[in-house]
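Notes continue from the previous slide.

Worked example: a multi-chain complex. Inputs as given:
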Amino acid sequence: MVASPLARSAQTSPTAAAWQSLVGAPLPSRRQEEWRFSDPAGFSQLEPRLWSGPEPWVDLVLPAGVKRLDAGAAQPQIAAVLEQTHCHEHWPVRLNAAAQVALLPLRVSAEASELVLDLDAADCGEVLAVQVLLLLEPGAQLDLTLRLRATGRSLSSVVIAASLQAGSRLNLAAVAAGHLDASVLAHLAVVQDPTSSLQLTTAAAGWGFSRLEPRIVQRGGGAATRLRALQWVHDDQLADTHSLVRFEGPDGSLDQVHKSVADGNGRSVFNGAVQVPRAAQRTDAAQLSRSLLLSDRARIDTKPELEIVADDVKCAHGATVSQLQSEELFYLRSRGIAEDQAARLLLAGYCDEVLAELPAAAAGWRPLLEQLHREASS
Amino acid sequence: MIRSDAPVLLKIRGLKASVEDQPILHGVDLTIRAGEIHAVMGRNGSGKSTLSKVLAGHPAYTVTDGAVLYRGEDLLGLEPEQRARIGLFLGFQYPVEIPGVSNLEFLRVATNARRAELGHDELDTFAFEDLVRERLAVVQMDPAFLERSVNEGFSGGEKKRNEILQMALLEPLVAILDETDSGLDIDALRIVAGGVNQLASPDNATLLITHYQRLLDLITPDHVHVMAAGRILRSGGPELALELERTGYEWVDQELAVAGVF
């Protein structure tokens, strides 16, 4: 594949050299298969200056059952999760380590109440990199909501590494409302022990460039993973989700729905890898990618990537790309509802399948709702 | 109820229409006055459903000739939503499922669009809930269906009840019910027909589009029209429907052959 001139120039510019020197590895390029649709030019023109604002989450009040770990003790645990989820060498993960300004390592030992983490890169023109470690002990439960915001030129870098021991349950929600000049790179890496349960719900809109990589490994199988995602692009935005779910033992389950809406010149990418090696007999996995194309200039790339070696498994997958259904529109209009309002209702309904699964602190978060409302009305 | 002095609500003259350049309607004439119930019968492909969609303004259909006047004003120049607001209603043969859109919210937005046209105040969520619960009785519908997405996972009968519930809320002057009886068991058919009878008044009119007599056993039409090959072949009273039930549609073919259509 031939790299675009833009990607080539980004590789050789002084800014690209500064990124390489910070991260210790060259910027990703579209010549790499996993970056072939995500042009790093989207964020790499920002000077790689580190966050100079106050450290986030210093005054965070933790709910009962959640304790902050010592940073030194946390590092090997984070490294282990990132290695087990095969992303420790990923460029965004290396960037995160190099640029990190906040580390929040948490041990959850009981049924904890909801924890909300807010992160606002505003228009800082800098790189705001944070890392969260979640260790859920046997039987522990946590609802964690990350609310990520940017209102101008900035790069947010997030790595969440979580380890779920037997019988634990993590409900992780990440909502992100961005800006055309803002970028976000996020890795959500989770290692699940048998009988643990993970729900990961993400919703992002308004980012010039976003790259989300959920990396889930059921290291003994036998766990439950539920993924719900919504991404919305318009103008010249790009949203890329590369997800990986790997079963390393039998009897695991996956229920994944990824939805995207592409308007204007926007481009939405979904690559969903599901790996079922021989050891993962009786895996029950379902992946559905649904995309809505609202403009003839927008572009959707969606690719399920199932690697199934085990023979006694149920693995379903589907991918649809459609436009607003004309029969649905006509039905609403035939009831007196104006065309633009009918379209808004249909778009809200389309997003609702994902948004309805968000916990209250994420579902009622105004920046995302307002962003979605603006997108639907444009 | 026929009153020759009742105002004309809908006047269709020489209506021709096509879909994807395929002519379907070849000149339909029909006049409907307030207080009347009309039935249009005909076989599949005769153009009856096309007639209902053209009247409601479905964008896939193109009117190539003729005129439709609604209370004396041109109807065909109006958008579908404008037609609905001034009191035209189409009950769908296959009501559309809309996942993620709450039935209650949909009904409220639609009702308020009609109310605004009539100069009535918009109903807030609470006032609307009172109204909708009262109207549910018309079709004996379980309030649980209000909380679901529009028609999603509804049985055939529940979808048709939801159509009549919409009719009860929008209070149209002309209701066109396209194959409302299709896919209904006898109990559901009775409930739906009962709803239509309750809503019929001297001020409004109903156009039933149907294949079978069985709906007309429950809703007595004032006028029956037989449609074939995109036009109304014959009109009469309720006895015409009974005759059709007895003789079938074969005579239609003979008349068409005589007329040189086939």
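Summary box: The longest strand of chain A covers residues 154-164. Residues 1-11 of chain A have pLDDT under 50 and may be disordered.
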